[in-house]
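Subject: Sanity check before I submit

Could someone independently write out the structure tokens for this chain? I want to compare against mine line by line before I put it in a report. The sequence has 150 residues.
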Amino acid sequence: MGLEDDIAFFEQVPTLAALGAQALRVLAIGAETRSLPSGAVLYYAGEVADGAYVVQRGSLLLEPGTFSEGREYTVGPGTLVGELALITDVVSPSTAIAKEPTVVIRLSRNLFRKMLEGYPAAAEKMRDIMAARLQAWTKDLGAVRRKLDK
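---
Independent answer below. Compare away.
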């Protein structure tokens, strides 16, 4: 795929689409494409993550690090995996395994931060997205707490 194709693809990823075409151009230029054969492990639960991946083709099985951490699930094209690692140090909560021949695009934290520094409007949009998610999570947790308190 060419640069314009990568930008158009990123525009289909909800979190990335909000950043704008110029910011996505920077990400597309610095991104790394990786092809995985079926069964290959992209990363393991417990590893320190220094970036995120966008599934371009194929699918990934995300297995929780421990049984108590939840269920496994499959993600496909257009899914941004590990997005929190774009802005802060995190440990991967799951192992990602290619369920079929899969192509992912890796966005490093360093690249993402440099893009945000160069495009303050994109940084504001990212902050707004994360603030909205935090509000939704807080509301959901409040509802769970009310149910547990009954």
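---
OP: Matches mine. For the report I'm noting this point. The first helix runs from residue 3 to 10.
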